[in-house]
Design goal:
By secondary structure, this protein is mainly α. It contains 5 helices and no strands. The protein is elongated.
């Protein structure tokens, strides 16, 4: 039963983090389209900073719970099973998660640089880049569900 609770909370925090990964670039699109409206931009920057900080907290909790699922059997062998064994799907999944984290950090840095006066990419380019996490999440889901290798 411990395994199911840990897995449930891992999924909850991973989903919450992914919502931040999806929404932060959308805030960047809105900033790029805000033009010279300082009040709107100030509100969007505030929202972006808060979301970025909160997203890191969500990722940290999801990471710790995922680590417990992956290696927790070594510490709590009666409560947590070895769900990975010698399979390597976890390596591919973690690679995609690492790319998602890098993407999230990149979006946060774009937000910070934009707030300091640097130009953002065009709204169209930001919209296209906003689709990348969907593809990466699809890969994560495939590796977790199919466990192809």
């Amino acid at each position: 039963m411990v395994y199911l609770w840990v897995k449930t909370f891992h999924l909850l925090f991973a989903i919450a983090w992914m919502s931040a990964v999806f929404y932060l670039p959308r805030i960047l699109v809105n900033i790029a389209e805000a033009g010279g409206d300082a009040a709107v931009k100030a509100r969007l920057y505030l929202m972006g900073r808060r979301l970025y900080r909160f997203g890191h907290n969500l990722f940290g909790i999801a990471f710790l719970l995922g680590l417990t699922l992956w290696e927790g059997w070594r510490v709590f062998p009666q409560a947590l099973p070895n769900v990975v064994g010698s399979m390597h799907w976890i390596d591919a999944k973690l690679t995609f998660v690492a790319i998602l984290l890098i993407y999230f950090i990149w979006a946060g840095r774009l937000l910070k640089r934009s707030e300091q006066g640097a130009a953002l990419p065009s709204a169209r380019a930001l919209r296209l880049l906003n689709e990348l996490p969907v593809l990466l999440l699809l890969g994560v889901l495939f590796f977790v569900l199919a466990k192809p290798f």
